[in-house]
Input
Amino acid sequence: MTSDLPLQILGGISAREFLRDYWQKKPLLIRQAIPGYESPISPDELAGLSLEEEVESRLVIEHGERPWELRRGPFAEDTYQDLPEKEWTLLVQSVDQFVPEVAELLEHFRFLPSWRIDDIMVSFAAPGGGVGPHYDNYDVFLLQAHGQRRWKIGQMCDTDSPLLPHADLRILAEFHGTDEWVLEPGDMLYLPPRLAHFGIAEDDCMTYSVGFRAPSAAEVLTHFTDFLAQFIPDEERYNDADITPVSDPHQIQQDSLDRLKALLAEHMSDERLLLTWFGQFMTEPRYPELVAGTEVDEDEFVGALEDGAVLIRNPSARMAWSEMDIGLMLFASGQSRLLPSSLRELLKLVCASDALHIDNLGQWLADEDGRKLLWELIKQGSLEFADE
Ligand code: SIN
Ligand code: CO
Output
């Protein structure tokens, strides 16, 4: 099985071993995970992205107007002329959505569900630059893409870990280093959630962070119950038709709690709604305004594909699929669709292929349900014509 093959990206262990021994558990340093990796974008191009309105970027200047000064983009062109020679970092979020060659890196991580991946953040740091000792609540693979960076790792943290007083940055007040390494281009460090870490640029350096998304338990509960509530009629209430005379009218008794628990359990165990909510939630795009959609008529889009046009996944769109007793579900950028089982192979193709065209779509263009699905995804903005 492919999951048992040794993978270079994991330093020669298999995906199965990595997930069993390291994922969400402990760090792993992988020398030459991608041998001789060269950043597909230059520091100047990264700075260029930080000038764009739709791109989320931050600058952390260690000795700015105050210690660890945080500035948020978009930045003006002259921002970079006025920066010190050393000890600052530019961080640009979701570069994978703007640079296809960066998105290609994600192909190495296909042993994990794609809907767990959040984005690829790219940082550039001047010598000595770093964002301070901190921890993140998500897993991250830190790929060194240019120059050298010294990574230090420390203790496991939680919400009780003391932080420096800072309005915007969560910098740890204490860092108990346990290990450190200097990473060269192509080296990669995997860090589990909540492990303290601290990267310091040895020279001009770029680091790619492949970050994952995992909803907090509090988010799952609040979002799912909000979603559920839309389907529950107001007349459905706490019900005690089985009540017997009470011994003390002021007491809340166990049987009342049992009725509440039954009410909760009945709704919480609705797997169909749970899946619908989860699929929508996990495919919510980071920048919904970039999944705008377009009006196109059905004959026009079929005609265009027949004439050789290529459909690509909108780089800002997120997709996943699932199957239940009621049929197939496709989740695309925060929306769900219930589809007939006959579309299974088309769903897999739509989720997995970078490009859809007459050669791989073939028979699906002649299938009414298949055509309708593609059409809806174009109108919604999850798919778009390559030349647009
Ligand atoms: C960085 O690339 O400078 C910071 C990445 C991180 O520590 O999460
Ligand atoms: Co971090």
Observations:
- The longest strand covers residues 117-125.
